[in-house]
Each structure stands twice: as structure tokens, then as C-alpha cells.
Design a protein that fits this description.
This protein is mainly beta and 309 residues long. It has two helices and 20 strands. It has a 20-stranded antiparallel beta barrel. The longest helix is centred in the N-terminal third of the chain and has 18 residues, at 6-23. The radius of gyration is 21 Å and the shape is globular.
Length: 309
Amino acid sequence: MKQVNMKYLNKLIIVLLLVSVHLNAQATRQNDYMLTKEKIAELKIKSETQWKITFKDGSEFKNKISYKEYSRDGLLINSVTYGENDSVLSENKLYYDAESRLRETHSYRKGKTGKLRNLYSYNAGNKLTKSETYDEANKLIVTMNHSFNSMEKLDKLETVAADNKVHLVFRYLYNDKNNLAELQTEDINNKIKSRCVYKYDDKDNLKSQVTYDNKGKTIQSVEKKYNDKGILIGEMTKNADSKIMTEENYTVDEAGRYVEKVITNPAANISKRITSAYNENGVMVEQTIFNKLNEPVSKISYEYEYNEE
């Protein structure tokens, strides 16, 4: 049997974990640039293309960075990212069942990953219970099994490699309000590798998350702040020595949309400001990035194609 490449497997598991968390999400986090399925369907958006415009020596350079295609129901069915000269870096095709549940994805990523196929299974409550990843030769690489508690909350996520051995286990613990309180990562010997502890304010907004190693030492901490409407307006990330790695502050308009972000990294003396513009339908059409001297250095423009009636 082919030996499992642990470095590659761990990277793949992280990607699959993010997908799993998204599919089993209990709530939708406010996002300033991602459209909801309902909004896409309402506006009849067929596709979205992102372009990056870079300013240098008085000239503008425009490059396509991504393309997304949607069904008439507002479901993402294809996404592509691009490198220089419109070269394809990655592509992901998504397939759904009659209940709009993601059932299969076919992905390509330039480099060692190559082509992958993912299959997804659900329980009667529409919770994701299993995902399987196959390589280009249709060999199973990794399986992720999901189990749930009596409140239908994700309780455990178990990763099984092609050698049929459990390599990582993620355990989810909740507080008395059913908010995620702790995420534990265990190795093959059921020993805790890391813990991430989550704390909330009196409005159930996530206010902090701290990651610890297997000895209880802090690896990283994140602090969040919100306005009186519960919209995230600030986030600070610190390292193991409690030094600020990044600090982000957001400005929102009356509609709750992010119109400005200020991101700083004190240790590296880096600072940038990002402004966002929206059209009459509340859809983002442009972002402008400024350096610490408040000079515009690049833009991200969003172009949309719409379905005919």
C-alpha cells in the first residue's frame, strides 16, 4: 500500500475541515464581499469576475484573479483562480442534489495536489456526516467522519487516511448556550495536540479565541469587538508572547456594510487601508488598497453577468 504523505495529508485535512465547518455552520457570519445564495438568486447573478489593478510608476496593470459561476438558485457551481497571464491556478466544480446540498466537487490545483474529487453525505437532518477525497487515479486519500450531539451540534470530526488509520480527531465542546466553547485536536494516540478556547459577550458575540499547545502554552490569541448592532468592527491577533501581530479596524455604513478597513502590523511596521464601494443593489463593485502613506497601490474590481429573464 502506498505510504501516506503526512505533510500533504495535513494540508488537505485543513482545507477539508474549513469546507466541513462551512457546510455545518450554525450561523452565517457577516461578510463584506461574499454574496448570499438568496441575494444571488434575487438579483439573477450568473457570474462574478474579479480583477486586480496595480498602480506603478504612473501606469495601471490589470490582471484577472478569479471567476465564479452560479446556478439560477444562487448556488456556486464553478470557481477559478488565476495567476499571471490568465494562467489557471485552481478550479473547483460543485454539484448539488435536489435539496441544494453539496454532493460532489471536482477540483484542480496547480502543483502536487493536482485533481481531486470530493463526495459528501448527509443525515436526515441535512447535517454533513461524511466527506471522502479521491485522487486523480480514483484512490481514496482521506475520509472525514462527522458525529453530532443530542442538540444536533457537531461533536466530533474524525480523519481517516488511506491506510485506514485515524490520524486526527477534532472534538467540539459547547457552553450552556450551545455556543462553541472549545475545539480540541487529538493525535492518533488520543493525546491533545492543541486546544482553541472561545469566549462570548452577553450578546453571544464571539469576543476572544485563544489557541494553546499540548502543554497549555498560548500559541495565538484573537480579540474581537462589535458595535451596538452586533457587527464586527475590530479584531486583534497576538502571538505567544502577547505581541500584536495584526490589528484590524472596520467602518460600516448604515446598511451594515464594511466601507473601510484599516489593517496594521506593528512588528513589521506595515499598515494599509482598504475602502469598499457598492452599487445600488448593495453589491460590492470595487475595493481600493492604500499603503501606510495613504497612497493608492491597487484596486480590486468586481464585474457581474446576469441571467436573462
